[in-house]
Structure formats: structure tokens, C-alpha cells
Amino acid sequence: MGHVSELRNLIGSRPIILVGANVIVVDSENRILLQLRTDNNCWGLPGGSMDFGESLEDVAKRELYEETNLIANELLFFNVYSGKELYYRYPHGDKVYNVVATFVCRCFQGELKCDENEGVKLNFFHCKDLPENLSNPDKPMIRDFVRKLNTEIPIQGGGGWK
Q1: What are the structural domains, with CATH classification, of the chain?
Q2: Beta partners for residue 47, in sequence order
């Protein structure tokens, strides 16, 4: 997050628009992967902000690997989130309005390993047994995914959800 740090040095913690991506990783039991975050002690999705020159899909793949050690073999676009619901004030005071592309990954490889700078632990959760302390910026994505999972069947390799 080099360019964001440079920007913060110039403007302090005033609100900025931050573009990024996150990933809803789903295992063979339809459980979703969540990370217990170090910054707010809440469970959230692997993801982060865009670096110069990256596509949103690049961001999703990079952040997934950095935070979980998993490699996404296939990402399906899910939705883009923005607006007042995506405003977030980090515990250290920085304020952001997030614009987040959310992807779903059912086809992945690697052994789970938590990045200790960003997370305390990683766990797969059944949608009916999600932890209460979900990270606010990730709640809309998780809520929408659980709704879709309960009402529709995901189509792999077809470019998204039908």
C-alpha cells in the first residue's frame, strides 16, 4: 500500500476514495473463508487496495495470496460495492470511502497460512454459523453472497452468477 501511505503523508486521515477488491473463497462444503483481522479484531474477507497498473482481478488474486497463501485458479465476478455503506474509519483514524469489486473463488490451491501483519487466524464458516463480529466494510458482500447462495446455484466458468 505504498501509494496510499504517500497520499496519507500529504493529507493525513481525511477521507479518500479507495479502490480495491476482495474474494469470497468457498470450499467444497459451501463454507466461506474469513480472516480475523489484526486492525479491528473482526472477521472479514481477504482483500485490499489496488496498486498502480493492476486490474481488479489482479488485486483480488494478489491479496488472496498475500493474506491466505491460496492461489485462485478461477475468479468469478460477483458485484461492485460503493456508497455510504462502504465508508470506513480505521481504528488508527484514517477515513475511506471504499469502491470494492468482489469476486468468488471456488477453485483454489495452496495451504492456508495467515499473514500475521493482517490477520490473527483464518477459518472457513458455514453461512448459518458466521461470527457476530464481522468487519463492517465486508458485511454487504457477505450478506449478498449468503442470499444468493440460499436462492441460486452458482455457475462455474460461465462468467459469473445466473
Answers
A1: 2-151 (3.90.79.10)
A2: 22
Closest of 129, 130, 76 to residue 105, by C-alpha: 76
- Taking only the tens place, the pLDDT of each residue in 68-97 is 999 999 999 999 999 999 999 988 899 999
Q: How far apart are CA 36 and CA 42, in angstroms?
A: 5
Residue 158 banded pLDDT, cuts 50, 70, 90: very low
Cell of 106: 471456488
Q: Which three cell numbers stand for residue 152?
A: 441460486
Residue with cell 481488479: 56
- In DSSP notation, 125-137 reads E-GGG--S-B-GG
Instruction: In whole angstroms, give the CA distance from residue 129 to residue 131.
Output: 6
